[in-house]
Write a structure and sequence with these properties.
By secondary structure, the chain is α/β, with parallel strands linked by helices. Helices cover about 50% and strands about 15% of the residues. The protein starts with a helix and ends with a helix.
Amino acid sequence: MLGPVLLAAARSDGIRRIVSAAPLTRPVVDRFVPGEGLPEVRGAVRDLTARGLDATLDHLGEDVTDRAEALRSRDAYLALADALAEEGLGERVEMSVKLSAFGQALPGGHDLALANVTPVVEAAAAAGTTVTLDMEDHTTVDSTLAVLAELRRRFPQTGAVVQSYLFRTEEDCHALAGEGSRVRLVKGAYKEPASVAYQDKREVDRAYVRCLKVLLAGRGYPMIGSHDPRLVAITQELAARLGRKPDEYEFQMLYGIRTAEQERLVGAGHRMRVYVPYGTDWYGYFMRRLAERPANLAFFLRSLATRG
């Protein structure tokens, strides 16, 4: 199985150096990451919104190793909030953040991450948009949900992400499916032990559908993060059965993946949000995308062979 190998590679500094230095890598990465700075991402967002697609923006960076780095992550998001205010795109574009980029893994990391992310959430609100807290590996879930609860005291629109491959997630969905709660449901993209997560794809999919039922039956705003055609169809069927209108939930997919399907869903009257990452720290994100789907890896290898 290549998936676990690629997930392990995503955390390897040695492999990072080799892949990052390869001259043929960057043109392929551009499929998934539109650029490293705000000018590039602003252009990508203008293109998406012109085609009827919404977006969520992620300034890449995670597992920071010192407080100065965490502050740089905070400042990058503050600059992003200013850019969204200038573009007047608050209603169409939100921000996604990883708390590990704000110092969550450092000593005193829970309080540090909360202190660093709070001004970002404030700036997002001032720009007319909001923030969703990405979920990372299972060791961070309790801290992330505690930060979420604290932020929602002042900013109830702050979004959460849950991962269906974790055994605990169905229970978390019940807790998060309240009035106005924004919850993105994904399968999960980290290498997790069998003690906390399903290892079989079919079990992950079945758990996804169970969580989907909880969120669609609740009073919150579900955000369905999946490229799986079967899960997209199941979502549509469940939403219709439960009386959900098209503007009472949304689909989310990654930048550069299944773009025709993204436009098809918009054409059918659904809300479709594209997850757009940007920045220099693209390696971990890129390797997880390769691990998720064999088609992504095949695309990468074919592109390298063609360019070689």
